[in-house]
Amino acid sequence: MALSREQLAQRVAKELKDGYYVNLGIGIPTLVANYIPEGMQVMLQSENGLLGMGEFPTEDTIDPDLINAGKQTVTAVKGASFFSSAESFAMIRGGHVDLTVLGAFEVDVEGSIASWMIPGKLVKGMGGAMDLVAGADNIIVTMMHADKHGNSKLLSKCELPLTGYGCIKRVLTDLAFIEIKDGAFHLLERAPGVSVEEIVAKTAGKLIVPEHVPEMAL
Questions:
Q1: How many structural domains compose the chain?
Q2: Other C-beta atoms within 10 Å of 67: how many?
């Protein structure tokens, strides 16, 4: 059974470590804020100028002036700080973010990512993704394995305009957790109830499948 958006966020949260500074991209990545393990100290950074982002607010805690880079209302944890987007991008470009979680339209076997533009469609713009992929070493992309027409989003070569080249090492989809190395996708885990055969069928780029592929723990 394919993972839901919330389950994807739960699995990404298992990659967090105590003391990490983390940037969450727009879309599924923002949900990770709701699944930070109890007792773990993680500071979430947003490119619009917030360090110390908390969970999404409840109706009685909404502050319309407190938003993330995707213009969603958020909360701030104790010790949070606010600053200009220029300072925020200096943190990103300076390599001070320990983990970046991004969404994507396409990822290929070289670790390239296309996440900001579909020709002919209205999009909000690239946001901070190009800075994040250039300034971060540890990036996880989380997205659907295939588009709504069943076309694979894990390709031999990205077809859409690139956000970054050769910068992605791990991809979590609704079907699988995959590592990118040596010009291929390497299957690490499969979603509960999802067969290896389905993952192979829906992966357009070269996929290396080990003898045993464990089910994902959520």
A1: 1
A2: 15
Is residue 215 domain-resident? Answer: no
Choose, from 6, 15, 38, 47, the residue flagged as catalytic.
47
Spatial contact of 50 and 80, defined as CB atoms under 8 Å apart: yes
Question: Cβ distance 106 to 155 under 8 Å?
Answer: yes
User: Torsions phi, psi of 108, nearest 5?
Assistant: -120, 175
The amino acid at 173 = T
In whole angstroms, give the CA distance from residue 170 to residue 179.
Answer: 5
* pLDDT for res 180: 98
Active site residue 47: yes
Q: Express each pLDDT in 11-61 by its tens digit.
A: 999 999 999 999 998 889 989 999 999 899 999 999 889 999 988 898 888
Predicted TM-score (pTM) above 0.90 = yes
